[in-house]
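BUG: 3D viewer hangs when loading the predicted structure for this chain

Environment: internal workstation, default settings.
Expected: structure renders.
Actual: progress bar stalls at 90%.

Input used:
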Amino acid sequence: MDWEHVYRNLKYLNWVILLLLASVSYFLMSNNFTTGVIIGGLMVIANFHALQHTIRQGFSTGDSRTTKKASVIAKYYLRIAAMGILIYFFISQKWVDPVGLTVGLSIVVIGIVSLGILMIRTTFSKEST
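Structure tokens produced before the viewer hung:
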């Protein structure tokens, strides 16, 4: 299975999970909790997309290996610092509930685990036929 197909499925699954969690949260939890789920989900999906883009650039042909490695590491730390600043800002301004933000930030992990389960299920169903 190629990365393009897996990445496309993972992106789709992440958006579905964000929509599902935000919808459930809207009806069952407070506005700050729901806002935290949505903002955390958007932040982590954007971060995952940027990480994927950085990794692709780092493994492309062209510049020297040392330059690419330094670039990937620098971008990684900049992204983590930006996420930390945003998380601090949203929580300190009391715009989001910290637990809701944590749930939102877990969307990509939930998506990866769900995709793994779906892929295993598909593999076993193909073997049994």
